[in-house]
Each structure stands twice: as C-alpha cells, then as structure tokens.
Amino acid sequence: MQNIEEIYREQAQTVYRFLYSYIHDADLSEELTQETFVRAMKSLHRYNGKCKISVWLCQIAKHVLYQEFEKKNRNKTTTLDENMEFSTYSTEELVISSENKKEIYKMIQSLDDTTREVMYLRFTGDLSFKEIGEILNKTENWARVTFFRGKSKLIRRMQNE
Fold first, then answer.
1. DSSP character for 77?
2. What is the DSSP letter of 90?
3. pLDDT at 1
4. Is residue 86 within 8 Å of residue 99, measured between CB atoms?
5. Residue 138: predicted pLDDT
6. What pLDDT is attached to residue 80?
7. Are 124 and 22 in contact (CB under 8 A)?
8. Block means of pLDDT (10 residues each) for the chain, length 161 residues?
9. Neighbours of 81 (CB within 10 A)
10. Cβ neighbours around 126 below 10 Å, total
11. With the CA atoms of 140, 144, 149 and 155 taken in that order, what torsion angle do they form, in degrees rounded to the nearest 10?
12. What pLDDT is stored for residue 5 in this prediction?
C-alpha cells in the first residue's frame, strides 16, 4: 500500500477535477480536495482495495461536497448554485451558447438525481463513461445509457419550448 503522500501526488488532480465538475470554483475545489485527503488519511486503514483508489477518493470527495452543500444551505449565505457555470465537451452534440446556459441548467435540475449526477460528471467534468460508472458503482454501459437518455430529455424539452 502506498503512503498518503504518494497517493496525493498521483490522485489529487483527479479529485480536484471531480469536485470542480460540480462547483466550478477553483478555490473551493482546492479546499475540498484537501479536506478529502485529510479524511482519506484518517480512514486509509479501511480502504480494502476492491475498487481503484481514485474511485474511493472520489466517493469521499462526494461526501465532503454534500456536507459543504448542507453547510452552505444551513448558513444561507450563498448557495453553490450561484457560482456554478455550465460547460460542455466540444465534441458533444448539445452545443450551448452562453445565453442558454441558465435554461439548460434549470432543465438539468429537473432531471432525477441519478441522471442529473451523470450529466454533471459528463458535461462539466473530464470524466469518461467508465470513470462515471466506477464512481457511481455501475457499469460503463449504464453510464452511457443514462447520459444518452438524459441528453435526449433535454433536447426534447428544448424543442418543445
């Protein structure tokens, strides 16, 4: 088993990108990445090796992020949603102009939780379908199908408006 410094050097960028794909705030993503590794260091003895270390770390990061969302909502200072931007891969069929970002974001919010999470990871993250499947404990094919169905729903809604 590697020590935490080696793991950090190898995996920090992956965890950072995962968090940034949700919140689009570089400083907060960096802060939450650090918190993720603090928690990972405390629970490294519980890592059983059944999944990739990057998947395990992203699961911890996801919990850290959810706690941050809850904290922000409790304090009612500002929501992370106000800081989020929507971006896409240039290769995706769904091309979004800046004036449509807000509408697309609203439409994604109306999707079920699982589809919404897959859409965020694919659109705003730098994650493959295989990585999305691993993070969500599903198959690569499941991630592809869920993404395709979510994208189809968005396209239909855009055409109906």
1. S
2. T
3. 52
4. no
5. 92
6. 41
7. yes
8. 79 89 86 90 83 87 84 55 42 43 76 88 78 90 89 77 62
9. 11
10. 14
11. 150
12. 83
Q: Residue type at 29?
A: S
CA distance 144 to 116: 13
Q: What is the pTM of this model?
A: 0.51
Residue 109 burial (10 A CB sphere; 0-12, 13-18, 19+): exposed
- pLDDT of 139 reads 92
Q: Read off the tokens for 86.
A: 């929507």
Alpha helices in 24-139 (DSSP H): 26-43, 53-75, 101-109, 113-123, 129-135
Strand, coil or helix: 127 = coil
Q: Report the alpha-carbon distance of residue 88 to residue 107 in Å, rounded.
A: 15
- The per-residue pLDDT for 89 is 38
Q: Rounded to whole angstroms, how far apart are CA atoms 48 and 44? A: 9
CA distance 151 to 108: 9
What is the model's pLDDT at position 90? 37
In order of their start, the domains of the chain are 1-80 (1.10.1740.10), 85-161 (1.10.10.10)
Residues 11, 17: Cα–Cα separation, whole Å: 10
The alpha carbon of 119 is separated from its chain's Cα centroid by a whole number of angstroms, namely 9
Structure confidence at residue 91 (pLDDT) = 33
